[in-house]
Write a structure and sequence with these properties.
P-loop_NTPase; FeS assembly ATPase SufC; Rossmann fold; ABC_transporter-like_CS; 6-stranded mixed sheet
Length: about 250
């Protein structure tokens, strides 16, 4: 099946287990959202799937279109079609946005083949215009000196250029004002379709007003504890996470 499938995943940092038996499947063509309180393990999940070396997967599996990616290095996972937009995008001094993106695209080409410069820049400018990014960003170092909103737009630009099979957006709304949120959300929505599956990680309903999910998952203490339609996010916005925690704590009647 064409999906990103997470099977009974357990992840620890050092000796502390953060993800404790999480199972989730994101089919192509769908947008899923994970919501949950601070410390529930949402960002740990994204980094573990991406292959961050500080996060140890002790059991379970992650399958991309039926193929396990756990034995792959992060760059191999990316070439297989996985994309991770970070909550706090890193700066890469000395590497221009244009060179970074062109190198990333060329790494996917057959040996000895490269993308034509004219085609590359035509596509790049088209995607930049959608995100209201000025041409000068092509020559600036990746994220260096960028505002929070500029960094998030740059992440979505990378996603648009790389055209992944599956995208994980880790708190893309973090640090955005309402105008930047609308632009970034429009950039994500422009890429929705049958050839991509998206997992959106967020604390707040406001992002989901613009990127409307097909399914909402609630994560507490390293597990998915509830699933539902988009209206579940509205319920969380109204009641907070305590009502779910309280429900989990209730004893089961005989």
């Amino acid at each position: 099946m064409s999906s990103l499938k997470i099977q009974d995943l357990h992840v620890r940092i050092g000796e502390k287990e953060i993800i404790r038996g999480l199972t989730l499947e994101i089919p192509k063509g769908e947008v899923h959202a994970i919501m949950g309180p601070n410390g529930s393990g949402k960002s740990t999940l994204s980094k573990a799937i991406g292959g961050h070396p500080d996060y140890t997967i002790t059991s379970g599996d992650v399958l991309l279109d039926g193929v396990s990616i756990l034995g792959m290095e992060p760059d191999e996972r990316a070439r297989q079609g996985l994309f991770l937009a970070f909550q706090y995008p890193m700066e890469i001094p000395g590497v221009s946005n244009a060179n970074f993106l062109r190198a990333a695209l060329n790494s996917r080409q057959s040996e000895g083949e490269e993308i034509e410069a004219v085609d590359f820049y035509e596509h790049l400018y088209e995607e930049m215009d959608k995100l209201e990014m000025r041409r000068e960003f092509t020559s600036r170092a990746v994220n260096e000196g960028f505002s929070g909103g500029e960094k998030k737009r740059n992440e979505i630009l990378q996603m648009a250029m790389l055209k992944p099979k599956y995208a994980i957006l880790d708190e893309t709304d973090s640090g955005l004002d309402i105008d930047a949120l609308k632009i970034v959300s429009a950039g994500v929505n422009a890429q929705r379709g049958p050839n991509i599956g998206c997992l959106v990680i967020t604390h707040y309903q406001r992002l989901l007003d613009y990127i409307v999910p097909d399914v909402v998952h609630v994560m507490v203490d390293g597990r998915i504890v509830r699933n539902g339609p988009k209206e579940l996010a509205l319920e969380l916005e109204e009641k907070g996470y305590d009502f779910i925690k309280d429900a989990l704590a209730e004893p089961v009647s005989a």
